[in-house]
Design goal:
single chain, about 100 residues, mainly alpha, three-stranded antiparallel β-sheet, about 45% helix, elongated
Length: about 100
């Protein structure tokens, strides 16, 4: 009977699911994931930069994918370059 149950479970788990279910995080879990404070995450939520979802009319959750989207490479975020370009303006003007 165990073999039948496991084969049935396997057959139903592989059919029809096109998108995975979202992973829900509490604020402390999200803070640990992206190394921000809970307060910073709540500020981002209040500013409309991070979506927050209500579960059961009271409990707040964040989508893991939304939190992970906060993490971007620095060069894409602020046009940073590594290694930094040498400062050429001041040294030439002083000479």
């Amino acid at each position: 009977m165990t073999a039948q149950t496991s084969s049935r479970t396997h057959a139903t788990s592989t059919t029809g699911q096109t998108s995975p279910r979202p992973r829900w995080l509490t604020y402390p879990e999200a803070a640990e994931l992206c190394t921000l404070s809970v307060r910073s995450l709540k500020r981002l939520t209040a500013a409309g930069k991070l979506r927050c979802y209500v579960v059961g009319g009271k409990v707040l959750r964040l989508k893991a994918s939304d939190v992970e989207a906060l993490i971007v490479p620095a060069d894409l975020c602020r046009n940073w370059q590594w290694p930094p370009a040498p400062a050429s303006g001041r040294s030439e003007a002083a000479q």
